[in-house]
Every structure is written in C-alpha cells, then in structure tokens.
Write a structure and sequence with these properties.
The chain has helices at about 15-20, 35-40, 45-50, 65-75, 90-100, 125-130, 135-150, 160-170, 195-200, 210-215, 220-230; strands spanning about 5-10, 30-35, 55-60, 85, 110-115, 155, 175, 205-210. The chain has about 230 residues and is an alpha/beta fold. An eight-stranded parallel β-barrel has the order 1-2-3-4-5-6-7-8, surrounded by seven helices. Helix 5 links the parallel strand 4 and strand 5. The structure holds cytidine-5'-monophosphate.
Length: about 230
Amino acid sequence: MGKDVIIACDFSSGREVMAFLNRFGEDKPFVKIGMELYYAEGPGIVREIKKRGYRIFLDLKLHDIPNTVKKAMRALSSLDIDMANLHAAGSSAMMRAALEGLTRADGTRPILLAVTMLTSIDEDIMNRELLIDRPLPETVMSYAKGAKEAGLDGVICSPHESPMVHESCGSAFLTVTPGVRFSDSGRGDQARVTTPAEARRLGSDYIVVGRPITQAGDPVAAYQRCVQEFVGGR
Ligand code: C5P
C-alpha cells in the first residue's frame, strides 16, 4: 500500500466540492468526505464523486451497537468507497461486526480505520468526564491495539503517534494522520502541526490535508507540493 495524500473536502455543498475537484482536471486525488457534506447531500454525492474516478475516504466515525454498525457499514460499502472509519470505543465486538458488514460478496472491502481518542479530548476531560483514569497516550495505544486485534487496518492519529503505533501494532498497520501544515503557512485551529516531510519521516502512511489545499490560492499547486514533500517524485 503506497503512501498518499488525502484531501479533506470540508465543503458544505455538492456544488462547491465539484467546482473544487474540477480544478484538478484529469488528476484524481484521494478525497475525504466528512459528516458535513454527507449529511447535507446524502449518499448521492459519494456516488457522484466515485463515478468520476476519485478514491474516497468516507469519514463518518460510526459508533453504535454492533448489529446497527454492521448494517450501516454494509450500506456504506455498497457505495464503493475506499476507506471508512469508526470509534474504537465502540468495543471490539462492534469493530468485528463493522468488518463483516463492510465485506462485499466478492470478498473485497474498504480499508477500515479506528478513531482512538478525538484530539478535542485532552487528558483532563478524559479523566474527569469519561472517567478513564489513565494517561492519554496509554489509552490511545490500548485502543490502537484493540483495533488491530479486531482485524482493522489502522488508526487515525497524530503523525507524532505514528512511530509508537507502528512499533506496537506493526509497520503494516496504517497510520492516517491529519494536522498537517506547510512550514511557511499558519496552523489554523490545529494545536500541534507537522509538515508533509515530517509526517513522512515519522512513518505516516496517509496524510489528511484540508485547508492548506482547499483554501490555497492555487489548490492544485498546493496539492502537488504536498505530494512532492510527502511521497516524493512519482
Ligand atoms: O483543514 P485541516 O487540514 O485542518 O483538515 C484536517 C481534516 O482532518 C479535517 O477534516 C478534520 O476534521 C480532520 N481531523 C483532524 N484532527 C483529528 C481528526 C480529524 O483535523 N484529530
């Protein structure tokens, strides 16, 4: 599985995302569709983007009882997406059910990733509100190992966590990492940022990049710069 850059298409309408993707011409980047666009436009937007030949990470972070997640994943898998995700906190039974639901009749399935702990949850919130009385890194690693044991393909994490995840879950276990910024641009609301080149050095398998590409004056050039720094020439 090759390293790649995934563009977070955080737009609120199908019209905006299509106008954005049209700028890339024949180039078909890997794109991430999140809750905002999916809930606004429905599954039709996923079919439309897929029909045009893009690979899709559908970032809906499922978390429910195993049977419900299995059926929901079956519906998402039929959209022919390439990557899906869920919350590891939903239990190993839920993760195994998700894999079952995602697996198509021909045995293929999208890559399935787990969210460990949202970056909006710090150790204090985790201890006081979630009543998880452990250090945050230990909790993240425990969720990552649980995801690996349940048969998932990887986790979404900070590039800084990639070495630790690869060390304990193996180098084939994917780390898909947001929080990426160019060295010469602002960080926005991301607290800890990494450049594409640093993410590569830290061993990230995919980087998820939103605003540095979507808000750039020349998004295609920004994407190509990202690919160049993260993947190298291709
Ligand atoms: O615009 P930016 O590059 O910050 O976008 C990053 C993308 O990754 C957004 O879609 C954001 O929701 C997502 N993400 C994140 N941090 C996490 C999990 C997801 O930035 N911990």
